[in-house]
Amino acid sequence: MELAYDYPLYRPPSEANSLIFQVTLGCSFNKCSFCNMYRTKEYAERPWEEIRAEIDMMARFYPDTRRIFLADGDALNMSKDRLVQILEYLYQKFPGIERISCYAMPKNLLQKTDEELQALYAAGLHMFYVGIESGNDVVLKKVTKGATGRSIVQACSKARKHGYVLSCMVILGLGGRKYTKEHIADTAKVLSEIAPDYVGALTLYLEEGVHDEFMSKYGEPFEFIDDVEVLDELERLVRDFDPKMPVVFRANHASNVYSIGGTMPDDRGKILSLIEGLKSHPEMLKPKFLRRF
Ligand code: SF4
C-alpha cells in the first residue's frame, strides 16, 4: 500500500524503510544551482485535512510503524503550530513510533526560535537531515546555497542544543579544481565545529536539468575534478575532520566513487589507508555510469 505521492519524492537513504508523509511539496528555497530535486514543483504546504486523512489511512495499514519521514525538501518550513499538530496526531495513530525526521535547511533552523525548536522536539520531531554542501563561503555563494559557513554552524549548533540528531551532507568536488583546497579545509572546519551525529559525503553529479544553470551561476569556468582528485578531497576531509565526539562518517552514496565509512575520529587511520589503497588502484572505483546523485 502506497500513498498517492506527488512525484518526484526524495528521502535520505537511511529512511528507506520509513513511512513517508508529504506534508509539504517541493522546497521553499529551490535555488541551489546543483540541485534538480524539486525544480518541477512549486513549494506548497498541504492542508491539514489531507494530511490527517493520509495518516488515518496509513495507520490502518501500518499500525506498527516505527519510523516516519516528513517530506518534501524542507518540512521544517511549516509553522511550529502546524508541525506540532501533525506530530501529535502521528504519535496518537502510531503508538510505536521511535523516530520522526525531516530535511532542514540552515535557514529553516535559524528562522525557528529556540522555544519553537524545543516545542517541536517535545512533540516528537527528533532528527534533521541538513545539506551543508560546503563550509567555504566562496563555494556556497557560487552554488547559490543561501548560507555561509557561519550560518550553517549557528543553525546546526542551535539544533544540537535542543537535542536533535543531525545528519549532515557535504558534496565532494563542489569547489571544482580551483577551490578544492578551500572547499575541503573549510568543510572540515565547519563539520568539526558542529560534530553532527552523522556525516554523509556525496560526490558532485549535475543532472542535465541544472547543468547549464550551475555553470552560468558559478560566475567563472568550472572544472570538474577527476576520480583520483575526489579521493584526494575525501582524504583531506577525513584527515582534517576532528570532531570532539564520535561521528558516523559515510561516503557510500550512489554518487560516490567507492563506498567508504567508519566512525570518526577512531576510524580515521583505517579510512585513510583504504583511500590510499584506492588511489593506487583506480581500477577498483565504481564505473561512472553507475553513479548518480
Ligand atoms: S539542495 Fe536542498 S535547499 Fe537547495 S534547492 Fe535542493 S532541496 Fe532546496
Automatic annotation (TrEMBL):
Cofactor(s) in the UniProt record: [4Fe-4S] cluster
Domain (Radical SAM core) ranges: 11-244
Chain ranges passing through the membrane: none
Gene3D superfamilies in the cross-refs: Aldolase class I
Any one GO molecular function term: iron-sulfur cluster binding
UniProtKB keywords: Iron, Iron-sulfur, Metal-binding, S-adenosyl-L-methionine
SMART domains: Elp3
Name under which the protein is recorded: Fe-S oxidoreductase
Classification lineage: Archaea, Nitrososphaerota, Nitrososphaeria, Nitrososphaerales, Nitrososphaeraceae
